[in-house]
Amino acid sequence: MLEWFAIDLIKQAGEYIRLQIDESYRIERKTGKGDLVTEIDRAVEQLIVDRIRESYPEHHIIGEEGISTEPDDLSGTVWFVDPIDGTLNFIHQKRMFAISIAIMVDGVIEYGFVYDVMADELFVARRGVGTTLNGRKLPIIKEHHVRDAFLSMNATWVTPNQQIAPEVLAPIVRDSVGTRAHGAASLELAWLAAGQVDGYITMRNMPWDYAAGKLLVEEVGGRLVSIYGEPVRYDGKTSVLAGSETFVKDVVKHYVIAKGATPEVKPDLQIGINGS
Ligand code: 2AM
Ligand code: CA
Ligand code: CA
Ligand code: CA
To answer: Which sequence ranges are marked TM in the entry (predicted)?
Structure first.
């Protein structure tokens, strides 16, 4: 069964990372000094792709490191794979990174898996069934407004970005209980599903970053949309705003729209999925 296959696969990949983390490995730059890939990222994606191909040759795979040829559309079964989400944490902290896998069937995410490798915490979501953490069902998350929310926010909100001006987001940081930048999108969404943070905001994510986390969050009653409150796309980069319905509405209505923010780059601008 697909769910058990994916759980076995993600745990095997995690074990491989734990064995390699203290060994020496090559690190390469992608677009800049903060955008790195190691040979472990590539080896893990290769391991995952090989096993999916062996058992499900008709499935398509969209992975961050581009090991598999991306499909032309999202019909049939499509796997979104981020072999190491939080590569900088993997390199520098040796913790707080995850393997993120989502399975989409005919355009709908049916399963989400986020594995915190060093903490050995596996989050699993099945659409319509719920989210579990190491097999234990997670309760519905509490409703929060910005003023009583503890947030995880990617620090790129401070810098000029293609989505929204820093002045629009600064009041959210000011009004919330506190903000953290943990550096691993899938894990920050998993922690949101577990009630450990009350919201997650980032200006730039790709589908393999949030596809699994989105289902984890939705299956405990939360929402995940763009910073403008629109549905997120699966064919390119997007901003991400996630939390309880109250939180998401509060951010969009009282912070983003109220400040008259409009996208500097249209959020659903069409780009190639493995491009930039
Ligand atoms: P990554 O580690 O797999 O690259 C970092 O704050 C979070 O944003 C991570 O989940 C990281 O995933 C993701 N991210 C997506 N695009 C990124 C980029 N171009 N540069 C840095 N982090 C990126
Ligand atoms: Ca990366
Ligand atoms: Ca990622
Ligand atoms: Ca990655």
So the answer is: none
